[in-house]
Amino acid sequence: MSTIDKKDKYVANNGTEYTLEYDGLFRWVRNGATAEKLKGGFLSAREAKAQFTRYNASLEQEVITPVGELASLEKKAELLGYARLKGIEIPTQYKSVGAIKKFLQGGYK
Predict the structure, then answer these.
(1) CB contact burial 43-56 (16+ within 10 A = b; e otherwise)
(2) Using one digit for the tens of pLDDT, what is the confidence trace for 90-100?
């Protein structure tokens, strides 16, 4: 049976950093709660990475909010959906809900 000497780090589309660790099974771990879709153990790193890909794909199915309601948006997924709908690319340094909202409102120009 192979072992992993190093811990592989991956960043999900929502900015959350996960580490793929091996303890007899491959597991996704992070500081804080692990997403439901990534919980459990996997028999191979390939299987774990495939699940991570599926998890990332599910994040892309964000809520699309009608244009003009930016002030009422309070969740990161809603703000990212709004930006995608408007064709706006959010710079990577804006990660928090407040920073993304301020950027979309033109506060960082």
Answers:
(1) eeeeebbebbeebe
(2) 888 888 989 98
For the chain, give the longest Cα–Cα distance. 56
DSSP type of residue 38: G
Provide the residue type at 85 as one letter. Answer: L
Domain ranges in the chain are 8-59, 70-104
* Number of residues written out for the chain: 109
Q: Which residue has the tokens 């771990």?
A: 29
Report the alpha-carbon distance of residue 16 to residue 1 in Å, rounded: 30
Distance CA 86, CA 84 (A): 5
- The per-residue pLDDT for range 44-75, each reduced to its tens digit, is 999 999 999 998 887 765 455 555 578 888 88
Specify the pLDDT at position 47. 95
Any idea which residue has 């003009």 for tokens?
Answer: 68
